[in-house]
């Protein structure tokens, strides 16, 4: 399990790498935004990826790393690997947004396309890892990943000690489990709401079932949130702090698009659909709107056409 000591150690190891991102109050929303889009790779994923690569044994790290990702985790792994001067390979879906593919390449990562689902790219990554002797850095199902993501919560509590509610987008569960564990480590009483696309309700069903549920298919404009299941480790962390989780709300793609437009038009924030999901939930009235509510904006790697079309 991820301990408070693991999280504090991750925070220390991330100094000078992950930014302490702003927490800003937006009057039009009546809530705060935690702007993880301002990380070096444009998303929170740098926290978990760098922490996991940092903690690899040196011989394993020197052989290089590989991951499977729809985009943001892949960029984070490529960025982190570059800091250590090691090879990084990222298997990505054939449908990955061009902005994310180019982001991986920008940091020196090698892109290998593999099907359309998270399973397709995981299987391909495992085959390459076995062939080339690369260390796998999973996108969410690993304690070092969760500990890294938990540092978001430490910052939120430091920036807004009176925080009562944190709203988190849900893909594979690494971020929401990190937030829950981080709030516990910071001894905060804040509660957590998860937000998933209506076309990818894996945590929604998993919490109801009491165990991770695997969906047959998922689909959404929020490409970072369409994993087929939540990870076993993130789910165990959530189960440990189950009373802190108020629920998981589902948002339609139209609401997510509207939230992307709202954030661009109102705040001039270029936010990808996955990162705008929490705003969509608040605008829909599905989560509390107050000065003690924090919406985690997980990333800003957005296709500019989604913004330009709204100007």
What is the fold's blueprint, element by element?
Blueprint: H1 4-14, E1 23-26, E2 31-35, H2 45-54, H3 58-63, E3 65-68, H4 72-84, E4 88-92, H5 98-106, E5 110-113, H6 118-132, E6 135-136, H7 143-159, E7 165-169, H8 174-185, E8 191-197, H9 202-209, H10 232-240, E9 245-251, H11 253-267, H12 273-283, E10 293-297, H13 304-308
Parallel strand pairs: 2-10, 3-4, 3-6, 4-5, 7-8, 7-10, 8-9
Antiparallel strand pairs: 1-2
Helix pairs in contact: 1-7, 1-8, 2-4, 2-7, 4-5, 7-8, 8-10, 11-12
State the CATH class of the largest domain.
Answer: Alpha Beta
**Portion in strands:** 15-25%
| Number of helical regions | 13
Helix content: 40-55%
How far the N terminus sits from the C terminus, by CA atoms, comes to 47 Å
| Poorly predicted ranges | none
In the CATH scheme, what's the topology name of the largest domain? Rossmann fold
CATH architecture label of the largest domain: 3-Layer(aba) Sandwich
Coarse structural class? alpha/beta
Q: Write the element-wise H/E pattern from the N-terminal end onward.
A: HEEHHEHEHEHEHEHEHHEHHEH
What does the average pLDDT come to?
A: 95
Q: Largest beta sheet, briefly?
A: 6 strands, mixed
Taken from the alpha-carbon principal axes, the silhouette is globular
Q: How many extended strands?
A: 10
Number of domains: 2
């Amino acid at each position: 399990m991820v301990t408070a000591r693991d999280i504090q150690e991750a925070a220390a190891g991330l100094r000078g790498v992950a930014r302490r991102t702003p927490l800003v109050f937006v009057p039009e929303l009546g809530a705060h935004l935690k702007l993880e889009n301002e990380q070096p790779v444009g998303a929170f994923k740098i926290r978990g990826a760098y922490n996991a690569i940092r903690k690899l044994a040196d011989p394993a790290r020197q052989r290089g790393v590989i991951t499977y990702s729809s985009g943001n985790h892949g960029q984070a792994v490529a960025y982190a690997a570059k800091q250590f001067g090691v090879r990084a390979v990222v298997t990505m879906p054939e449908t990955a947004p061009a902005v994310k593919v180019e982001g991986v390449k920008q940091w020196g990562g090698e892109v290998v396309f593999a099907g359309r689902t998270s399973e397709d790219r995981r299987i391909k990554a495992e085959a390459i890892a076995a062939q080339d002797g690369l260390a796998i850095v999973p996108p969410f199902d690993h304690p070092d990943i969760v500990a890294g993501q938990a540092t978001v919560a430490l910052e939120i509590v430091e920036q807004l000690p009176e925080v009562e509610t944190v709203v988190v987008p849900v893909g594979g569960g690494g971020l929401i489990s990190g937030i829950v564990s981080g709030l516990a480590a910071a001894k905060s009483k804040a509660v957590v709401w998860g937000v998933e696309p209506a076309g990818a309700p894996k945590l929604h069903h998993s919490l109801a079932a009491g165990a991770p549920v695997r969906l047959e298919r998922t689909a959404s404009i929020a490409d970072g949130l369409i994993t087929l299941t939540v990870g076993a480790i993130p789910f165990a962390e959530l189960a440990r702090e189950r009373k802190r989780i108020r629920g998981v709300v589902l948002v339609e793609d139209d609401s997510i698009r509207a939230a992307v437009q709202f954030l661009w038009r109102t705040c001039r924030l270029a936010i990808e659909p996955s990162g705008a999901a929490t705003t969509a939930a608040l605008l829909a009235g599905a989560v509390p709107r107050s000065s003690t509510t924090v919406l985690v904006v997980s990333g800003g790697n957005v296709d500019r056409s989604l913004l330009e079309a709204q100007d």
